[in-house]
Specification:
Layout: H1 11-19, E1 28-34, E2 40-47, H2 48-52, E3 59-61, H3 65-69, E4 75-77, E5 81-88, E6 94-99, E7 110-112, H4 115-128
Antiparallel strand pairs: 1-2, 1-3, 4-5, 5-6, 6-7
Helix pairs in contact: 1-4
């Protein structure tokens, strides 16, 4: 199976999203895996159908880039309209923020290792600031 970590949110951010009230529906899930004696082994990234078969484990939705894209507003209105802007730089880092091509909005901006994590950080910021 191809590694899907690059297109879904990290375990840490998935936990934060759940705490912030992000809807726990999605194609991919972080799930705790245990040895037969009940000892915690690791966290696995599983498709929804496989994650549904595991009971008694903590699980967190790992939203995809697309799933997060549907939750972020395209524009934030402040003193003018600021458009969601996402850029990948030459070092494979992702920048996300709201701008109007002349100035950045007074929301935070984030630079991360994957687009999914950038979108998740923006979602968490907007939720905290009451902009969602």
């Amino acid at each position: 199976m191809k590694d899907h970590n690059w297109q879904v949110v990290s375990l840490e951010l998935s936990r934060e999203l759940k705490k912030a009230g992000f809807e726990q529906k999605g194609l991919w899930w972080w799930v705790e895996s245990y040895w037969g004696d009940g000892t915690m082994l690791r966290y696995d990234l599983l498709p929804q159908k496989e994650a549904e078969c595991i009971s008694g484990s903590d699980a967190w939705v790992a939203p995809t880039v697309s799933e997060l894209g549907e939750t972020l507003p395209q524009f934030i209105k402040n003193d003018r309209d600021y458009m969601l802007t996402i850029v990948k730089d030459d070092k494979n880092h992702w920048w996300i923020g709201y701008s109007d091509y002349h100035a950045a909005c007074n929301t935070k901006d984030f630079t991360t290792d994957t687009e999914a994590n950038a979108r998740a950080k923006m979602y968490l910021h907007l939720k905290k600031e009451g902009l969602l």
